[in-house]
Amino acid sequence: MPSNQRRTQVARKPSSPMSDQIANKHEDSEHALGAASAKTNVAAKAKPKAKAKPRKAPAIAACVIATLVVAASQWRASDGDYQMANLASYAAVLIAGIFVAVLLYRLLRRVGYGYIVPVTIITSIAGFALLFQYDGVTGEMVPIFRYRFAKADGQALQTIPQPSSEKSSAENHSAEQSTADTNTANTNTADTNNQQPSHPDALAPSNTATAPPRPSTGGLVANSDSWQQFLGPNRNGVLARREFQIPQSIDQVTERWKINIGAGWASFAVADGKAITLEQRDDQEALTAYDLNTGTLQWIQTVPGFHHDTLGGTGPRSTPAIHQGKVYATTARGKLLCVNVSDGKPVWSQDLIKLGRWTLEQFDAAVTWGYAPSPLIADDLCIVCVGGPNESKRSTIAALDINTGDVIWTGGEDQISYASPQLMTLAGQRQIVCVNEKTVSGHSLVDGDMLWSFSWPGQSNAAANCAAAIPVGDDQVLVGKHYGGGSTLVKIFDQGDKWQAKQLWHKPSMLKTKFNHTCVQGNIGFGLSNGILEAVDLNEARILWREPRRTRAQAGQVLLVEDTLVIQAEYGDLVLAKASEEDYQELLRIEALDSKTWNIPTVVGNLILVRNDRQAICYQLPSWQ
Hints:
five-stranded mixed β-sheet, 23% helix
């Protein structure tokens, strides 16, 4: 048999039954393993990969750090800056809140509810915005919100009075007589109960109904029925004599009148029985006169103008000046008005924007928070801060004829700030002292020429200079500011052919006056430093005492009336405190206004007038009889 046939036969040799069984089982096993592997692969593809569990550590760390930042910044705020402390706290809380929100979102997304976090945030913001309205910020950058649906007090702004009928006159006379009787009754009751404290120990009750004779205080004695300009008769926030007794209790204080008033941070100037101020009325800036005894509107003079800033608020900022039967006032939009005290009729006006050769855009950029310097009257001149674009010359201040409004002279090369010009006698010469945007300068009262200048850094839209210069002694100038500036005392020399300004000291942590001014009595200065009342020895540049943190007035105001500090707290309280070198001693606290108050109070005899951007109140304190 051929070999190839043998090979064919061998190849076709049938296998045994046992071999077939083994082969079949092997094939079945392979098919089973393949099917199982395929199912495993399908299952692996079908089952999603498990997500990593969100880490909680970053959110926890952010919360811990935020807590430490808030605690540390607020703890150090009294020695540093409450505004910066608050901003740091807001930033820390916001960052921690973002970390927590992201963590909650990731945790809820694992169970299919991730949408809850953004929906909750959006709903909360929308609900808050629906119920509350933004109402500005405090001087320490704390946002203020008011309830949108709060019930109005029902009292509208007063309008120009119309001629009254005989009946109305009789009713008014009757009402005034009733008020007078009530005030007399209150006074008599206080006298009968021997509650009027004696002078100078304001806390000791009087043993008799008649007050003892006033001791002589020396120096200038202000007219008890006038407060004719910014910061009072001497334009320094100081009255030499106190014409009221310190009430032993709030019951001895009479609210003579309370009225609604337009927005603005102006204060009252008082003369001839009229309390005159500036306020915003719709799209008009209004110069208004109220009866000092009743609070009744006597006249109103308006000019078109509206200033509003998200941080600075709405309305005029300066205080009118009264001189020889005329009122001089500057609006937030740069208008200078002169009207009659008696009836408010215009005498003349000037546009400071045109006088400074500004464009409206340049003016708004230079004084972002509104024109604030109050006019100064000296030697038949109305002196105002003007400023101008960078190329302007001799435009820091201008002197106008008080009778005609004609420009007599201009002077200075520096840009203006929010501070008011001051009249001082330094080194034997009367001169105008201006706190400018970046400098402090002295100017001749004759022609406006700059006599001297020193650097006082600032910027009108940040770290602004707001407080005017205050004279100390015969040849020194005290200047203060917030925003880390502190205060400096500078001595002015006249060297014959050249004036010189020499810095005696500079303390960034002392007398950090923001909107207020240091009241100087001898070598002691009283001021709200970073919102805290403090007494300072100006000779030694040393803090004598500070009021407790819990009672601080924040961005308020302070006046010195002989031996008593009159403090207007930013949150509305009116406080009387002892002007002492020893320690802070509060004498009386009145819950006066119930909203933000940046306005300077006015003291006229035994009356104290306070106002803010909504209300004005006249308080009557016991007099010396």
